[in-house]
Amino acid sequence: MIVRCVLRAIGLAVASLMPTLAFAQPAPLSLDEVLQSSRRHAPQVLEAIAKVRQAEGKALSAEGAFDTVVKAEAESRLSGFYDGQYAAGTITRPIENWGGSLYGGYRVSTGRFPIYEDERFTNRLGEIKVGAVLALMRDRLIDDRRFGRIAARIDIDIAEADRLLAAIAVQRRAIGAYNQWVVAGLRVGVYRDLLGLAQERQAGFKRQVALGARPSIILTENEQNILRRETLVARAEQDLAAAANTLSLFLRDADGRPVQPDPARLPKALPTPMRTPADMRASLAERPDLKQIDMRLEQATSRLALDQNALRPRLDLKVEASQDLGPIGAGGRSRVGTETKVGLSFTLPLQRRVAKGRIDQTTAEIEAIRRRRQQTEEQIVNAIDALVIDVRATERLRTLAVEEYDRATTMARAEARRFSMGASDFFLVNVREEAAADAGVRKLDAEYRQIVARAELAAAAADLPALGLN
């Protein structure tokens, strides 16, 4: 008996939970969820991120010009009159700020060498040597190695700006696709409600015809309305499916695959339009395309400095000190003591036409970049001003559409009451209902246009938080 009661209690508990489980609805799909998905998984954004990594790899390669180099060599005579053996190792470290290098080495030799290889003799424990080569004129402030590093770092910033441009474009389209899907779903609801009115009325008409209160032709007339409204529902459902297909390009799973949004996750209303700053031009400097132009200008300016560097004569200073260690070797006493050397090397191309030609090219490139920046900035300002006008216009149109919808629904309800009391005709009721439905659709379209206009304005002004990129 106790077991039977326990099983009965469990059954009642499960039965009480079944309605909750059966009618549980998934959470509505939010715009933020779509924006986070597109930001992380959109192929355009991932491609731009890969290009950033590519630029970082090039920057690492440019740093290789400053790598420390180790060199070693050894030589042993296996036959012949001389039996000298020789081994040497050198470490060279480029100097970043003077266009030269530091070096140090060790070498040791045994046996005899011919007179023309006299420099190979060392004392018994070998010789240590340190030195430096410094650029005093050309390459002192900039050289190919330092320019390569500067250019590579700027390329990373340019790639980052490209990534941000791609992300802004993706987020702008994602906002449009999401709201188009929501509008399509709400439009289906409007037409289904309109169809439901005709279907409910048909059931009432059947009862009235059966009682002889209305002619049977009214059933045919209302069936015509039902068919017309079913057509509207079918078209709206088709538009909803198309909008869901477009939205799947931005709504993706953890593996980056497109996900068709479930119609059950449709929100009950459109999201609140994003707020826009009072002065949209204030964030003009944050535009990635303007930053790109500025970085290319910086890159060209650095190249001009490199070209001007090529005009200078080369004057290099070399300082070296060496010390032989241990007992005197086969080379004699000439290796005893510390040897220090200082030298200068001077080179001057007389015509320098290569450098002059490069300076002319780079100067013209800088001027072209500055003009392009001016044009781009003017176009952006013009586009922002036009979008501000569009936002204001869509706000006004939305307000009018809301007011029109309120009036149309009021008229439709009033006409339905008059019809139920016999003070109106069937044709006028249908007209009022369909006018209210049309006004509702126009209100949705006006709200959608306002949201899209604000998203376009946010993209033009690079308002990253509004686009889910903060």
Structure write-up:
- Helix content is 59%, strand content 12%.
- The protein has eight helices and six strands, in the order αααββββαααββαα.
- Helix 2 (31-41) packs antiparallel against helix 4, helix 3 runs antiparallel to helix 4 (144-210) and helix 4 runs antiparallel to helix 6.
- It is elongated and about 140 Å long.
Tell me the major beta sheet. Answer: 6 strands, antiparallel
Q: Which class best fits the helix and strand makeup?
A: alpha+beta
Tally of DSSP β-strands: 6
Helix content percent band: 55-70%
**Span from first to last CA?**
64 Å
Low-confidence stretches: 1-23
Mean pLDDT: 88
Radius of gyration: 41 Å
Going across the major beta sheet, what is the strand order? 1-2-3-4-5-6
Q: How many helices in DSSP terms? A: 8
Helix-strand sequence:
HHHEEEEHHHEEHH
Strand content: 5-15%
Oligomer: single chain
Which overall shape is indicated by the principal axes computed on the Cα atoms?
Answer: elongated
